[in-house]
Design brief:
223 residues, four-stranded mixed β-sheet, 5 helices, 26% strand
């Protein structure tokens, strides 16, 4: 009888320590910055360069996220940085878009048997740089970096982890201290001389260089 009660009690402890039930995967909203005011640079060309190569091996998990961090960065840079001049060029560079999983040490002792412990910490790092080159050798650059950290409990489901990763990325990109705001602040501070005058018309495509078709020699002779 005592043994049976002990087994029932043990079963209750095990049930209490079980991980959370499987959750549905997060609803993904696309990253879109077309509704925001663009950063208009007095250059003829803007190139977005993805210099971050995902390792796709532990401890990196950014390639497993519902939206890869570098995809959100690429969308932000493409939507927000615009060429608004007739000469010069700019490069918007994705330098880091990492999401790293850190295993946490497990506590020991009798108390640990009756508690759900933190098991992993996730660290998201986003870093971009904007380089501009104008006429007469003018050069300048601006850089912005944002990090976010979250910890999950043991037994957290795959769907719940994906929700954490997505929330981290959304926060790192879009909250008031996120990369979108920080990037614009740094650009307008460090590249003030490359910002196109307010209200300036955008030059036609092709770096603002207009072309005129010349008549062929045959047509000229016929005339």
């Amino acid at each position: 009888m005592v043994g049976r009660r002990w087994l029932i009690a043990l079963g209750a402890v095990v049930a209490g320590c079980a991980g959370p039930a499987e959750q549905p995967r997060p609803v993904i909203r696309p990253f879109d910055y077309t509704h925001l005011t663009t950063i208009q640079l007095d250059v003829a060309q803007v190139e977005v360069v993805d210099a971050w190569v995902p390792p796709r091996a532990p401890p990196h998990v950014d390639h497993r996220a519902p939206v890869e961090p570098r995809e959100a960065l690429r969308r932000m840079l493409t939507d927000r940085v615009q060429a608004w001049g007739r000469q010069g060029r700019a490069r918007a560079i994705i330098e880091e878009a990492s999401l790293i999983e850190e295993r946490l040490p497990r506590q020991t002792g009798i108390g640990a048997l009756f508690s759900t412990q933190p098991s992993e910490r996730y660290v998201l790092t986003l870093r971009v740089r904007l380089e501009a080159e104008g006429a007469e050798g003018r050069r300048g650059s601006a850089e912005a970096t944002v990090t976010r950290t979250r910890t999950v409990l043991e037994g957290t489901s795959v769907a719940a982890r994906e929700a954490v990763w997505y929330e981290m990325l959304r926060s790192a990109m879009d909250d008031p201290q996120g990369l979108n705001v920080e990037f614009e602040f740094q650009v307008r501070r460090a590249l003030r001389g490359f910002i196109a005058p307010e209200g300036a018309p955008r030059p036609p495509p092709g770096g603002g260089i207009e072309t005129e078709e010349l008549p062929s020699p045959g047509r000229a002779a016929a005339g």
